[in-house]
Structures are given as C-alpha cells and as structure tokens.
Design a protein that fits this description.
Layout (H helix, E strand, L loop, with lengths): L1 H19 L10 H5 L5 H22 L6 H21 L5 H19 L11 H18 L3 H10 L4 H25 L5 H25 L4 H25 L2
Helix pairs in contact: 1-3, 1-9, 3-8, 3-9, 4-6, 4-8, 5-6, 5-7, 5-10, 6-7, 7-10
InterPro entries: TM_pro_TauE-like, TSUP
Main location: membrane
Membrane topology: Multi-pass membrane protein
Amino acid sequence: MFADLLPAALAAVLLMGLSKSGFANGFGAFATPLMALAMPITQAAAVMLPLLLVMDLVSVYSLRKSVDGAVLKHCLPAGLCGVLLGWLLLSVVSLAVVSVLVGAMTLCFLLQRLLPAGGGDWRWRPLAWLMSVLSGFASFICHAGGPPMMMYCLARNMAPSHLAGTSAVFFFMVNAMKWPLYYQMNLLSGGNMRLALALLPVGIAGVLLGVYLAGRLQRQWFYRVSYAGLLLAGVKLIVDGARHW
C-alpha cells in the first residue's frame, strides 16, 4: 500500500528541501501533511525529523558565509525555549490549535505587509523573541515552525542569501534539540529511520536545487515567491486546524 502513496512522501521531502534552501520559503509547511498521506501523522513527523536535520546541515554548509549573527543572537535562545515549551505542553495543546494560531498569524503578517511603510517596525527585540518562541513551539508540535521565523526575517528585508543562511542555522539547532525529546517519546524507531534514510537523497537534491535557484532569483522575485509560500501555508494551516478542531 505504501508503494501507492510513495509519490506523496517523495513530493513532501522534495518540497521541504526546496524550502530549507531559502527558495520557496513557507512551502515547507505542506511537507508533513503531504507525508501524512502515506503514513500516520506521528510517523510522518518522526520520519521527517532526521531528514530535516540532514537537510539543515546541507543548507548550513552551502550558505555558511551568509549567516546574520545578530539575528541568531536574538532569535536562537528563544527558539530553543519554544521547543521546550512545546514538549512540556504537548499533552494539553492540540495540533489543531497550533495550526490555526500559526496560520492566522501568517495571514495577519501578510496583511500587515500591505499597509503603508510595512505597517510597523519588526526590528523590535521582543517581537523577535515572540516569533522565535512560536517558531520553536510550532516546530516541535507539527514541524510548522517555518512561517513565524520567516515572518520576522522577511520583515527585516534581509538579503535572500542571509535570510536563507540564518534560517538554516536556526532550524538546525531547533531540530537538533527536538531529537532527544522525540527519542524519549519513542518516535525514532528503526523502521522510521530506515524510511528516512531511503528518502534522504531526495531531500538533499531539493536543498541543492533550491540553493541554485535562490542564487539566481532577483530579490523582488525571491520575496514574491516567499510571500506566496507563506500565503498558501497560512491558509493550509488554518484549514487543517479547523478540520481537526
């Protein structure tokens, strides 16, 4: 039966790889739901975690000269706190609530960007902490931490390469922190790891393809693609959350 649904798993990993490269930011939110077409949602999340770690490593290496240390200094500690918060509240916070919350915030951000002068100053440090905590929290619950972090980085008008490089380091650390917590929850079984290994070449190919495309995309088009990805991701998260409310 899984062979019939393998295209969904391959598409999910390729899409996540493209998103991890900085190209098609926001589209990664579709990866876990797509993977869930081929397996239970908890297994899909478990299979995605080692893939995310390796794809993050490839992204970090490919974009190692384009990392904004100041943004990481503000965002990374808060993101790791968000992961711990997700672990602590996993039994009382539903996937539906997190999906709707992240989706609604994403759409509000896009609306805010249509206002004159961008609708406010997104460099305010408490806002960086808030977005980073939410990113780590949503990442632990359902691998949907991309939109909050992308909102903050896009609003700062970072260069595409610096946005991608900084996000790569941020999510590598976030996903590395999730590893022992997933292990404690007995999600990292041998079968899931073997499946992740089989899908790994597709993920790496997606990252490398995305790095190539992002490096050749004009800044304005990079942002347009990123905003389009966030729009689709926001709608998708709200629809998925409402369906399971």
